[in-house]
Amino acid sequence: MYRSPTQLRATIQRAAPLLLVLLAAVIIVLGRADERMFAPLRIALADDAGPVLGALSRPLVLAATAVDRVRGVVEMYQDNLRLESDNARLLQWQQAALRLAEQNRELRQLLRVVPNPALSYVTARVIADSGGGYVRTALIDAGSKEGLARGQAVIAGQGLVGRLTEVGERAARVLLITDLNSRIPVIVDGAPAAAVLAGDNSERPRLIYAVPPDRIKIGERVVTSGEGGLFPPDLPVGVVSALDPEGARVEPFVGLSQLGYVMVVNYGLARDLPQPVPASAGHRRHARPTALAAAVR
Amino acid sequence: MALRVSSIPSLPRVNSGIARMLPIATTVAAVLLAVLPVRIPGYATLTPAFALMAVYHWTIYRPDLLPPAGLFVVGFAEDLLTGGPVGVNALLLLLARAAVLRQRRHFIINRTFPFVWSGFTLLTITAMFGLWTLHCLLQLSLSGFRAAVFRTVLTIAIFPAASFVLGRTQRALMGAG
């Protein structure tokens, strides 16, 4: 059947919206089937958009700093009162901490504990977040050029923020502990109980698989357990803030929706992190001796 | 049928290159605005769907300058940037465009803002509910409904401001259209 070029162009133009919708649907299915399929594209775009996003987000950081400063001036008197009482309390804690540190050092010497020091720190600025999507991630303006690698822990101020899932040359993506796909082995300090901290895209992640399950109480500190070898043990995560029937809720120490600067810590644990293998490849993960397990042995 | 088609006035020609790029450029700007980290507690979850506002506005006033291929690329890029499931935003923007285009003649006849706003309200509720359903299917989990409702409300509430900015930009660069 012969068609003139104008007719052909009109046909393509009419079919284009439908074809593109189908293409988008196919991409969704492919992306669901193989999570890593679009990872190289993601990293490439983050690398290219990084400088632009960095420049655009700078005024926002400045604005936030300015707001903080104004608030600081307004609340100076009250802050001062609070700080004075805090200071008196903390001086007592300092004495206790010094005594415990000394005791700890002596006990470590007795047991010949191998210390697990951080190898390096990189400070980076958050340049983008998930923008209302059904994920909790953040882009930061540092990448493999600064020595970052997949799996490294990201912390800010008082606690754990998440870990690096994608690392480009100049930008990297942080999977926050609140994301639906985040699972972190933790210990509830007071109980003591081992559990997995599972994000569900809400502000406060849940504790699942708690052992023993009924000993967790509100107000107890949650720290990483170091199991699995991804994070070092004893990184502060948050406090138990509510007890739901489906698991205790944890209020993170870090305000994850107000991240300005974060610190990426390389503990040397993520060196040989295996790449996730698609489920069809038969096996999901290699068993491997972790640095932590090696240290215990 | 012929009567209905001829009742839609043809769009004035825009010759300036910058003006022709305006719909796509503002949609890209809307995506960037959505992913920029604003340090307000809980904002990352509730960020309004800025791109949806741009698509709605331009599909009503200048559908000729917002080609589906361009929308596809912008939506795809947004998915890659946010780290979410790939293709979801591309699909959302394309379907929104198609839905508005089908109803476009109503907006040609009735240009009052309350009418345009109620059209957007309908579109946003449908789009956000669809997005939530798709997310539930993809993640096999029923979470995030409350956040979706709040996000819908916020998106609808911010639309007048976005519409004002887009309208002003359109008039400044394209003339009355």
Structural class per helix/strand content of chain A?
alpha+beta
Parts with pLDDT < 50 across at least 5 consecutive residues of chain B: 1-7
Structural class of chain B: mainly alpha
Low-confidence stretches of chain A: 277-297
Main sheet specs of chain A: 6 strands, antiparallel, barrel
- Which architecture of one domain in chain A would the CATH scheme give at its second level? Beta Barrel
> Major sheet of chain A: order of its strands?
1-2-5-4-3-12
What does this molecule look like?
The complex is a heterodimer of chains A (297) and B (177). Chain A is of the alpha+beta class and 297 residues long. Chain A has a domain at 118-272: Rod shape-determining protein MreC, domain 1 (Thrombin, subunit H, Beta Barrel). In chain A, 36% of the residues lie in helices and 25% in strands. Chain A has helices spanning 5-33, 39-74, 76-111, 291-296, and strands at residues 120-129, 137-140, 153-156, 159-167, 172-176, 183-188, 193-198, 206-211, 221-224, 236-244, 247-252, 261-266. In chain A, strands 1-2-5-4-3-12 form a six-stranded antiparallel beta barrel. In chain A, strands 8-7-6-9-10-11 form a six-stranded antiparallel β-sheet, with no helix packed on it. The longest helix of chain A is centred in the first third of the chain and has 36 residues, at 39-74. Chain A is globular and about 90 Å long. The N and C termini of chain A lie far apart (76 Å). In chain A, 32% of the residues are buried. Chain B has one domain: Orthogonal Bundle (Arp2/3 complex 21 kDa subunit ARPC3), CATH 1.10.1760. Chain B has helices spanning 2-6, 17-35, 43-46, 50-61, 68-82, 88-102, 104-109, 113-139, 145-174. Chain B is globular. Residues 1-7 of chain B have low confidence and may be disordered. Chain B has 177 residues and is an all-alpha fold. Helix content of chain B is 75%, strand content 0%. At the A-B interface, α1, α2, β1 and β2 of A face α2, α3, α5, α6 and α8 of B.
